[in-house]
Amino acid sequence: MALFIKLEWKQMLRSRWMQLVAVLFVVVFAAISLIQQMALPTDGFTRQTASFLNLLLFLLPLFTLTIGSMSVAGDIESGWYALLKTYPMSIFGFLWSKYVAIVLSFLLILLLAFGVVLTMSGITGHMQLPVVFIFLSIFMVLIFSALAVFCGVLAKNRLHALSLSLVIWAVSLLLFSYILMALGTIVSGTMLKWLTIVMIHLNPAEWLRFGYFMFSGQTTVLGPAFYDFTEFYTSFFGYFLFIMLSALWVITPLGLANWILSKKGRDV
Amino acid sequence: MKKKIWLAGAMATSLLLSACGDKSFEARDINPATDICKICNMSVAAEKYAAQVALANGDYETFDDIGCLMEYYTKTDKKQIGEAFVKDFSGDTWVNVETAIYVSDKEISTPMSYGVIAFKTKEEAQQFIDSEGKGKVITFDEVKAMDWSGHA
Amino acid sequence: MRRLHFWIAFFATLFLFTLSASADTLQQQIDKTPVGGTLTLFSREYMETAVIKKPITIIGGEETLLMSDSDKPVFTIKNAENVTLKGLHFLQSNAAVVVKNSSKIQLDKLEMIQMFSGVQVYDSKDVTIKGLTLKGIDGQFASKGYGLAVFKSSNVTLDHNDVTSVQDAYYLEHTKDVTVTNNIATDSRYGLHFMYADGIKAEHNTLKRNVTGIMLMLAKNASLRYNDISLQWDWNSSGFTLYNAENIVAENNVFSGNRTGVLSQTLKNAQIQHNIFSSNQTAIEFTAADKNNTVTNNDFVGNILNIRSDGSDSRIDKNYYDDYDGNDIDDNGVGDTNYVALQSFGQWMVREPAYQYFIESPAVIMLNQMDKQTNRVETNQLVDSTPMMEPTNAFHKEYAFHLWSFLIGLIMLTGAIFLWRKGVKQ
Known about the structure:
Helix content of chain A: over 70%
Number of helices of chain C: 5
Oligomer: heterotrimer
Shape of chain C: elongated
Structural class of chain C: alpha/beta
Number of strands of chain A: 0
Largest sheet of chain A: none
Strand content of chain A: under 5%
Strand order of the largest sheet of chain C: 1-4-7-10-13-16-19-22-25-28-31-34-37
Structural class of chain A: mainly alpha
Radius of gyration of chain A: 20 Å
Largest sheet of chain C: 13 strands, parallel
């Protein structure tokens, strides 16, 4: 399996797409670390930290989902997966290798991008890179890669995979929030709070955003309505639960993908 | 698809909520770290002067002084208000505004200096007046008739 | 021989005298001091309380330490004139000094540690408190007392005091003509809390990490200038909360890193000018505002939301906004197009606080972009028709070279490139 992971990784890194994404990330991150024109306080939730957070939230899931799912769907479509099945490798082995390869290549991109940010901030003396951001992006890659594998398995072909992942991206980043905001005009404030809490658990992007506020100690940004909720999560048990639920976001999509693929395999 | 199910679910819950209109309202605990007065923005730090309104839609509004409650109470549509409570000055219980006994005196210092406090029973109110040597018992109607608009 | 006897007797009496004097209680010492006299306390611990009713100056010895043995304050100054307390140290008491019905009171360089509350002044006039430092107790602010509290008094001066970890650092109620300058308030509920006050001068104060920096309620005729208001970052925090206030001048203040810079409700005739608002979540919020309020010549830099309101309007002119994207073709320093501060999301947040959760979330960012296009034609609400192209204050960019950041970054970069190339190679 290690051999297969290595092979997959090489494939990933060789793809034009991946190289393009790497260049894009480096350019974008370099740009925002240079754009700082004035000396402003960097404590707390400022526009700078917000824009950095949003950049991660927008770009990382988008590329992990599209590239990851297309790679998996491509394997199945091109018959590469059928060929692999003749080897002594389980379905889960295949999915796991794909997952690890996607995660590793995106972590490499992150290494590259954060390297650029640190180098830049070393020169200009601004825009530190908070540790929370590093962990947040790692979590993001771990979770969305699993979702990407799931999308790829679900899709009929590469194009289908692309559209599926775009839908998931749009729903989790934008639509979910818009629906909730629209509902907020009808329901009471307490109701909106509970719906939001439910959404945080159902939507990986929101989950990670919440995780950022929690681990950076900026829970007050979310507003007083969420006092009890954040108190619950900012305890030892809360942290433990957060890690566990995040792990669930990795295991569930992979498990589902495994189940779908084995069902598909029987049908074919 | 997912979106539709969501929307339907949310609609159903909101309908459900509005359907069960005739329910009894309960006062909730004050959290001094987050609860602020709806009218004057001050944090509700001294609970014995506090008041709250349980809105018909399930929300709560908190007040740091009975004066602020009354300012809200008099200008809010009564249909929106489920039940209004004041804190018993000598105890830990929440009392319905209609049944509470009020003691008023300019010299009683309250967070917004409105000088009105509430008691659960007449005895407790009288006890306060006797021991402090100030204040007189007034009814809720008299409380409502007072001028509550903030004045500098 | 006789001489020796004399000296022995002399020293013995002297010794006895000092011994008995040092055994005097605080109250006895005060009573023994003549009217208008000066009493220097012994360098020892006092665990008692005393009442002052006459003109007197009390000065602390080098190691004088005062503690109350009951709920009462250490000193109660009642119906007195010309009382000065200087250089005293208080520890672990309910309150240090209470002043009632007195005038011409001076408290100078008092130090208080682990106190429930510090000084309370009632119905007095001509009170000056300066150089006082107070550190409160640990815990939630609801379980603490006020630092310096003044009720129904006039002509009060607070200068160069430093109060931390109490409920309200400086509380002034029903006061007339107070001057609050060069004070510091940190880690408390409210820094400066004015209620029913008339005539306020608050200048050069530093207010940090409180729930609210200056809480001005039902007050009029206040000038708040040159204050440094930063990091008010709690659940309901703001730099200034101006509630039901009239004739307010907020000038040359620096608001940075607050949840809301200036939160105002039913504000009348206020001038907010020449302030710096930087990196606040919301710089200014107006609810039920009056048309006579003006927001002019301020610098808005790095705030998430610059101005939001419930729809009530104020005059907004000649401010600098770092997110203004217009041009200045005629080169007169004023932008050629309007700056529209109006944002749908901002307005929603004013009406329903639960929306706070979505602040600057990806969905809201997209919404704001769309908003910017549709609001371009807005001419009434929250519009600055003369936005400045340059800030009035200089924002210095410090050039510093961080070697470690640079080196680690470089190592990460080369490592990543190396791994990539290794991966790509056969």
